[in-house]
């Protein structure tokens, strides 16, 4: 006969059924709700509070599992990168080397054998022009481009950042999707040396 629980089977305060910290179904429930909310209102229009309301949990539980909204989004769409980490790495070299840092970080993600398939899937989603691609573009604009723009004390900063994105997307598509030579087999450092100065001119020239 199984031993009786010392609490008589009662749940402690603040521990409703299906909401236990660490319960796998709760985490899945939050992710399902997040996907629904992002699809319904877009990245910019979605909040952690709205995700929590849709999932039927306290917002603190969303933060417990995932942190801020950008990390909820990355988990919900299984994105391969953390935007905060990317921005910190790009800014680490200082404003005079931002173009080089941006190129090195970008191509470094593609060179990682574990991340490469997910980067390829992300690029194809962006190029597809469907709802998921729009969500990802909104996310990257808000969490990566906008953060870099705030560091640029130059006119037309948003246009400059957009030109950087267009340049990198074009190189990535040619190199990793079309596999066109000589880009497909070019050394990564050679690409950084070639693309970095162009990015720097866009950012600060």
Protein described:
The chain is mainly α and 205 residues long. Helix content is 68%, strand content 0%. The longest helix has 22 residues. Keywords: DNA-binding. Pfam families: TetR_C_16, TetR_N. This is TetR family transcriptional regulator. InterPro entries: Homeodomain-like_sf, HTH-type_TetR-like_transc_reg, HTH_TetR, Tet_transcr_reg_TetR-rel_C_sf, TetR_C_16.
List keywords for this structure.
Arc Repressor Mutant, subunit A; TetR family transcriptional regulator; Tetracycline Repressor, domain 2; 205 residues; HTH_TetR; globular; disordered N terminus; TetR_C_16; 2 domains; 10 helices; DNA-binding; mainly alpha
Number of domains: 2
Look at the structure and give the mean pLDDT: 84
CATH architecture of the largest domain: Orthogonal Bundle
Question: What class would the helix/strand composition place it in?
Answer: mainly alpha
Which helices and strands occur, and which strands form pairs?
Blueprint: H1 24-45, H2 48-55, H3 59-66, H4 69-76, H5 83-91, H6 98-111, H7 116-128, H8 131-150, H9 157-177, H10 188-204
Brief overview, please?
The protein has helices at 24-45, 48-55, 59-66, 69-76, 83-91, 98-111, 116-128, 131-150, 157-177, 188-204. With 205 residues, the chain is an all-alpha fold.
């Amino acid at each position: 006969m199984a031993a009786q629980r010392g609490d008589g089977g009662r749940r402690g305060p603040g521990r409703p059924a299906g909401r236990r910290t660490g319960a796998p179904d709760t985490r899945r429930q939050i992710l399902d709700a997040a996907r629904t909310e992002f699809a319904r209102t877009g990245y910019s229009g979605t909040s952690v509070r709205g995700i929590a309301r849709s999932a039927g949990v306290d917002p603190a539980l969303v933060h417990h599992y995932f942190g801020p909204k950008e990390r909820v989004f990355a988990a919900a769409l299984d994105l391969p990168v953390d935007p905060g980490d990317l921005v910190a790495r790009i800014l680490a070299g200082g404003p005079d080397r931002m173009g080089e840092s941006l190129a090195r970080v970008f191509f470094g993600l593609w060179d990682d054998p574990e991340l490469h398939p997910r980067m390829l899937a992300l690029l194809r989603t962006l190029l597809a022009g469907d709802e998921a691609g729009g969500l990802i573009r909104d996310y990257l604009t808000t969490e990566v481009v906008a953060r870099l723009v705030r560091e640029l004390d130059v006119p037309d900063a948003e246009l400059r950042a957009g030109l950087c994105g267009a340049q990198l997307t074009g190189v990535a598509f040619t190199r990793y999707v079309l596999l066109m030579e000589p880009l497909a087999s070019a050394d990564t450092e050679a690409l950084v040396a070639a693309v970095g100065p162009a990015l720097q001119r866009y950012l600060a020239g």
